[in-house]
Amino acid sequence: MATVPVPGAFGVLSEAQDVAANAIGHHTEPERPVTEDTFHDETDTSSSENSEKHITELARTFTQASIRNEQDEHDNPFASTDPTLDPHNEKFNAQAWTKTLVAITSRDPERYPTRTAGIAYKNLNVHGFGNPMDYQKTFGNYPLEIGGLFNKLRGRGQRKIQILRDFEGLVRSGEMLVVLGRPGSGCSTLLKTISGETNGFFIDQNSTINYQGIAAQQMHNDFRGECIYQAEVDVHFPQLTVGQTLKFAALARAPNNRIPGVSREQYAEHMRDVVMAMFGLSHTINTNVGNDYIRGVSGGERKRVSIAECCVGQSPLQCWDNSTRGLDSATALEFVKTLRLSTNISGATAIVAIYQASQSIYDVFDKVAVLYEGRQIYFGHKYKAKEFFVNLGFDCPERQTTADFLTSLTSPLERIVRPGFEHSTPKTPDEFAGAWHRSADRAELLREIEEFEAEYPIGGAHLEKFKKGRRAQQARGQRIKSPYTISVPMQIKLCVTRGFQRLRGDMSLLFAGIFGNTVMALVIASVFFNLQNNTETLFSKGALLFFAILINAFSSALEILTLFAQRPIVEKHTKYAFYHPFAEAIASMICDMPNKIGSSIFFNITLYFITNLKRTPGAFFTFILFGFSCVMAMSMFFRSIGSMARSLPEALGPAAVIILALIIYTGFTIPTVDMHPWFRWINYIDPVAYAFESLMVNEFSGRKIPCTRFVPRGGDYDLLTLANKVCVTTGAEAGSDVLDGDVWLRVNYGYERSHKWRNLGILWALVVFGCGVHLLTTEWISAKKSKGEVLLFPRGKVPELASAADDEEGAQDDRIDANTLEATATHAAAGEAPPSIQRQTAVFHWQGVNYDIKIKKEPRRLLDDVDGWVKPGTLTALMGVSGAGKTTLLDVLASRVTMGVVTGQMLVDGRQRDSGFQRKTGYVQQQDLHLATSTVREALTFSALLRQPKATPRAEKIAYVDEVIKVLEMETYAEAVVGVPGEGLNVEQRKRLTIGVELAAKPALLLFLDEPTSGLDSQTAWSIIALLRKLANNGQAILCTIHQPSAILFQEFDRLLFLAKGGRTVYFGDVGQNSSILTDYFVRNGARPCGVEENPAEWMLEVIGAAPGSTTTVDWPVAWNESDEKAEVRAQLADMRRELIEKDVETDPTSLNEYAAPMGQQLGTVTQRVFQQFWRTPSYLYSKTFLCVSTGLFIGFSFWDSPTSMQGIQNQLFSIFMLLTIFGNLVQQMMPHFVRLPLTSLDLL
User: Fold this and answer.
1) Interior angle at CA 1108, CA 1104 and CA 1109, nearest 5
2) SS3 358
3) If you average pLDDT over residues 534-546, what whole number do you get?
4) Chain centroid to CA 1238: how far?
5) What is the mean pLDDT of residues 883-910?
6) Among 274, 240, 327, which residue's Cα sits nearest to residue 84?
């Protein structure tokens, strides 16, 4: 049923199919097609497809029947004492839990109505506007874009780019579709189109999409959370724990028609615990999710958190975009099986794009779609796909998985043509699509689509049934057309709770803000210390109040950065229909109150009493009140700017100019009486001006201020009586020794006592107005989306291929993209040894490596007694479940850890690692971190110049870069700009560049690689591993972590180091031919034999109990420690220490230097790169130029033609002061660049 709260429990699918098979007297293997003979009583079942459909329906029927028959035997899973239903118990059984829940919900179909949403689409065409290739913008050529802007406004200049063309498909409720294709083929676009994520592209009007009787617009507006898209990237609040993140998702989608007696809190906590148990996350419940800056769970675990967050949403139509990225093979398979269970039991529909699908994963699906550069070249049953292409003349090699075979067809260099078909097989995407359009399979698909549309017409009975199911889940009072499950007050309450959890998760920000403001108060107070109440201090007190209100006002300026940091998360949750964006905006304002109140109190109290401002309770609390009111008003101002802008530069530039205007027209630097009429209006809308006026009135109104200087004075004038003198301060009365504060305010500033409380009303009116603008813009304005993987080239360096193709293709359908360019590259033969690549001779070996850290003051061991070695010419795989410590081990071996305690021996040829060890090794990180403005060649050259030995001539270093480009087959895009992820190089090209940057350094010892195939399609992954094999054959020593290797990929490795949870060794040794040595070890120690068609990498994770839901009776780390293999490893390590130390030691003294290049060369090379970076970031330079020019003009016109009077001279001084304040705004613009730059630079020097 679609109302089953969690889609999935591992293993139930197999049981359901066994139930069906037993019911008809036959045994059926799960996930495999059956023949006619299996069902000899069914005359209409004539194909494996129909047989499998029939058995799936029987499985679902018999499973539901058996559940209903056993329902009286089950307890409420939310309050049961049965250990098999308790996710905290080791005996927890996901099958039993799911059966129990279905049994309870099936008792009352009226209370728990079903929601299903299959999909049929035909004539689906998707296009965008832009250029598939563009020139790199620089400070010099940016003005040339003005003409392009005019053309764009007139509808010219941008060409229509066809992204998807002539797609048809049908996925019924309860079915699973796998979408295969290389990056750039349109897989993500198809999933986004189905789920309604159409930002940046358009669906043709003649396209037809039918969500089982629901129109596309209605599905994406009224039922948004019922059709979701799970993106490839993982964005979460890093301060939250995994448990808090998942509980929030469960509460946001908690249905109103829960099991009686189960509260929302109980429901959410139980569902959180269940999905965490299912996805192997229970041990991370109190661990921060983390990100690149905050330590948290591993990358694989973070991916599982993203998956679990979607699963608790109970969406009947789910689109998963490469969601297995970063997961180990066993976990990826179990994830797909979870989706299979959801479709079988609840009737959900799952559409999954997978780049690396093993045969086991492929077999779980019902249908497959194959995409080739925006064309659909097959859609149909999974077991018919291979036969379809084989009949076209293509050959599937032995041991190649079906998914790999289908994907290889989209690569001219990978597909294999059978003898005799060389001239008849399709070669281009259009030819493949033509073959599909002429096929009988497509005709059958079109017939099925017509039947589906007849069965489920748009707006028919199923729409009402779907509405009924949705209405049953929604909270009371919620609109039926609202896509959200819970009401707005509940959303706000939920977001507030999460906001305070984030605050508690990182209290340092709160204390840092309060501490910083307190220090500022002390600094300002030291300048205006203990001001006396006389006319000498009038100006000083005015300046003090001016600075006080400015610090209060602009303490919220960095909220713009905070808004943009959390914007991707909020937008993701909005797409999941968790809450309105304005609900999070309200919660954010509430949760920021402790920081605002604390900072305001500490700053204002410290400043007020040290400077000796008016010592009356009323004046003090009024000062606090107006200071806080100004904080709130400016906070709303900055939040409005942040929510109105679609990118950070769009927000920071205007904000800087507006801040300057608010400062100048506060009323202190230019008194209101002296303001020029053309800018006088700014003062009327300036919240700082109203707060400043009230503070001045609060301090001086009603006071008689003693006068300290009179005129005339000096000589005999001092003998005159007071009646003949007057105070020198403006506003003083003749014959009086005191100054009336109200008169002084009126004469000098135009301030009135009656304005004080009026201004408070105006301030809070501005708060309300700003809040309203912020909430509205948050709800309706989304962040700027990427333009897609469009190659950028510097002017004059566009490859000739692109120019020629551009002329031939024309403007209608220009598809020169990364794949096209790559396909024309000259590929070196696999295994060909590049003679010029650095050969390595040293052996790196380690023994008894342990790594201990403290997490929340509790010691934790991440690596436990790990042994191993990497020899030149060998390719060693480092594998294990997510969170086993693979990346941690690489960091420890590469001397990259900066915290914790590392023990054990890590030696190079029997000697301790020296200070030059890091620069003699290459480390390819999982994240592809590059300077976005550099070209591929420049990135490689930068690494070569700074990391190769000083003695190597510069010309030789440059020549070596050319060799690296050839080895990595990057000639066609060597001059392309790297760009940011999503704009510039595609995934594969970035990964090749990451490897190339390390190769260009000529690592003398070894090469570390962390997940080099993560996120790549199977063909690209194969090309990367083939490249590593080529490098190893040439003498490179390589240690590489890998998650999801196919059987063929796995065979490329020479040795394997396999880690279990806690960084404990399970196996270290040779892999062997067909993994024979590896499998023999596990079988000898109690594992079941590995099947002939099984992938050893998946089998290995399963038999040790590393996959979620799998168990083992063998303690494999203990078995390894007691094995003969471990003793042999220790013996070989002892031999290495004894024999390798006798090798000749490198005598070059520069080899011990931490850096290869001297300081002067480093400074010159880095300075040149930074100059290039800024020159190629015209938005940054022009925004600074605009800021400086506009600031100068604004200040000039504000202080226009200042007179030579005392006030005029004062105005001129303030104009200089205002000009100096521009540097603070320039620094704010610099901060994002400064934060990003170290990530791309620290590993290169």
Assistant:
1) 90
2) coil
3) 92
4) 19
5) 89
6) 274
Q: Which one, of 182, 184, 190, lies nearest residue 132 by Cα?
A: 184
What would the DSSP string read from start to end of 410-464? Answer: T-TTT--BPTT-TTTS--SHHHHHHHHHTSHHHHHHHHHHHHHHHHS-TTSHHHH
Q: Which two tokens stand for residue 652?
A: 């920071």
Euclidean distance between CA atoms 79 and 87, whole angstroms: 11
Cα–Cα distances (Å) from 1049 to 183, 343, 1004, 1052, 1097, in that order, read 19, 31, 26, 6, 10
Element (H, E) at 44: none
pLDDT at 509 over 90: no
Angle at 653 between CA 650 and CA 656, to 5 degrees: 140
DSSP classification of residue 37: G
Q: Give the closest residue to 281 by CA, choosing from 291, 272, 293, 290.
A: 272
List the helix and strand counts (H, then E) for the chain: 44, 28
Query: 3-state DSSP call for residue 1009?
Result: strand
Instruction: Find where tokens 């609390």 sit.
Output: 621
| pLDDT score of 29 more than 60 | no
Identify the burial level of 1193 via C-beta atoms within 10 angstroms of its C-beta, where 0-12 means exposed, 13-18 middle and 19 or more buried. Answer: exposed
DSSP state of 867: E
Of the pLDDT bands very low, low, confident and very high (cuts 50, 70, 90), residue 804 is very low
- Tens digit of each residue's pLDDT (9 = 90 or more) over 683-721: 999 999 999 999 999 999 999 999 988 888 887 777 777
Beta carbons within 8 Å of 824's beta carbon, 6+ residues apart: 801, 972
SS3 assignment, position 924: strand
Nearest CA to 547 among 675, 690, 692, 657? 692
pLDDT top residue among 450 and 809: 450
Question: Which long-range contacts (C-beta less than 8 Å, at least 24 apart) are formed by 421-424?
Answer: 421/392, 421/393, 421/394, 424/393
d(CA 637, CA 635): 5
pLDDT, tens digit (0-9, with 9 covering 90-100), for 1092-1107: 878 888 888 888 877 6
Q: Beta strand 133-135 with 791-793: parallel, antiparallel or unpaired?
A: parallel
Domains of the chain: residue spans and CATH:
12-105 (no CATH), 119-222+316-455 (3.40.50.300), 488-675+766-780 (no CATH), 844-929+1006-1152 (3.40.50.300), 1159-1241 (no CATH)
The closest of 1047, 996, 999 to 1021, measured between CA atoms, is 1047
Residue 540 CB coordination number (10 Å): 14
How many alpha carbons fall within 13 Å on the CB side of residue 516? 12
Name the least confident of 40-44, 399-403, 563-567.
40-44
Question: Using CA atoms in the order 324, 326, 328, 333, what is the torsion angle rounded to 10 degrees?
Answer: 0
pLDDT attached to residue 838: 63
Chain centre to alpha carbon of residue 52: 39
Strands 1064-1070 and 1055-1060: antiparallel
On whether the pTM is more than 0.90, the answer is no
pLDDT at position 1244, please?
46
Q: Binning pLDDT at 50, 70 and 90, where does residue 1032 land?
A: confident
Q: Residue 926, SS3? A: coil
Backbone angles phi, psi at 927, to 5 degrees: -85, 135
Cα separations in angstroms, 63 against 31, 174, 865, 1052: 16, 14, 47, 43
Q: What is the DSSP letter of 215?
A: B
Neighbouring C-alpha atoms within 13 Å toward the C-beta of 877: 26
Q: How is residue 352 written in tokens?
A: 């999954």
Q: What is the pLDDT of residues 286-306, one digit of tens each?
A: 999 998 778 888 878 888 899
What are the structure tokens assigned to 437, written together?
């359009």
* Signed CA dihedral, 460, 464, 470, 475: sign only: positive
